[in-house]
């Protein structure tokens, strides 16, 4: 699936959600549904006020990992278009951090593939996140709830 209808961007710049949803929906005349997700930087995490978040990645490797996630979603569901945008660098609370859009022939495939991609992004794509709190900087680790969400997809979903 990682082809002309797949967009994977890792960037510092903000993105335009409306433009990205329109782009995903217009990728093919066979698309009847677009499901999307936008993640924001929290202002409170683990009970602490968050002043900012700094994200790093491994250029080249991270994009390949994201492409593999999209390919796996495409093998399970009818994915006609996929966009994944993940921001890096310094971000402030309430800024957009991640965007996923899946275009499909039908809503169920779009919703499930979008959720799957997001769950796997949280656990399989190499991003290092450091939060700035009033107590200083701290590295974030993968949450058990994110691992559980990704694990729940094992053996689940239609195979095509």
Describe this structure in words.
With 160 residues, the chain is an alpha+beta fold. It has a single domain (6-151), classed as Aldehyde Oxidoreductase, domain 3, CATH 3.90.1170.40. 32% of the residues lie in helices and 35% in strands. The chain is built from four helices and nine strands, in the order βαβββαβββαββα. The chain has helices at 17-25, 61-76, 107-124, 144-151, and strands at residues 6-11, 33-40, 44-45, 48-57, 81-87, 89-91, 96-104, 127-133, 136-139. The strands form two sheets. Strands 3, 4, 6, 8 and 9 form a five-stranded antiparallel β-sheet that branches. Strand 3 (44-45) and strand 4 (48-57) form a beta hairpin. Helix 2 (61-76) packs antiparallel against helix 3 (107-124) and helix 3 crosses helix 4. The radius of gyration is 16 Å and the shape is globular. The two termini are 13 Å apart.
Key features of this structure:
globular; 160 residues; Aldehyde Oxidoreductase, domain 3; single chain; alpha+beta; five-stranded antiparallel beta sheet; 32% helix
Which helices and strands appear, and what pairs or packs with what?
Elements: E1 6-11, H1 17-25, E2 33-40, E3 44-45, E4 48-57, H2 61-76, E5 81-87, E6 89-91, E7 96-104, H3 107-124, E8 127-133, E9 136-139, H4 144-151
Parallel strand pairs: 1-5
Antiparallel strand pairs: 2-7, 3-4, 4-6, 4-8, 5-7, 8-9
Helix pairs in contact: 2-3, 3-4
- State the end-to-end CA separation: 13 Å
CATH level-four homologous superfamily name? Molybdopterin biosynthesis MoaE subunit
Identify low-pLDDT runs. none
Radius of gyration: 16 Å
Number of strands: 9
CATH topology name, in short, is: Aldehyde Oxidoreductase, domain 3
Can you summarize the main beta sheet? 5 strands, antiparallel
Q: What is the H/E string?
A: EHEEEHEEEHEEH
Structural class: alpha+beta
Beta content comes to 35-45%
Q: Which CATH class applies here?
A: Alpha Beta
- CATH architecture classification name: Alpha-Beta Complex
Broad shape: globular
As a percent range, the share of helical residues equals 25-40%
Mean pLDDT: 91
What number of domains?
A: 1
């Amino acid at each position: 699936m990682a082809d002309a209808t797949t967009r994977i961007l890792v960037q510092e710049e903000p993105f335009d959600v409306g433009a990205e949803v329109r782009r995903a929906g217009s990728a093919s005349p066979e698309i009847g549904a677009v499901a999307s997700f936008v993640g924001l930087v929290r202002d409170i995490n683990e009970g602490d006020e968050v002043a900012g978040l700094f994200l790093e990645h491994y250029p080249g490797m991270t994009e390949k990992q994201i492409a593999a996630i999209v390919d796996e979603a495409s093998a399970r569901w009818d994915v006609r278009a996929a966009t994944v945008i993940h921001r890096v660098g310094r971000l402030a609370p309430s800024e957009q951090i991640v965007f996923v859009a899946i275009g499909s022939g039908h809503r169920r495939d779009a919703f499930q593939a979008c959720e799957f991609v997001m769950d796997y992004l949280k656990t399989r794509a190499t991003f290092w996140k450091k939060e700035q709190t009033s107590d200083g900087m701290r590295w974030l680790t993968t949450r058990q709830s994110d691992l559980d969400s990704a694990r729940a997809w094992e053996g689940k979903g239609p195979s095509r």
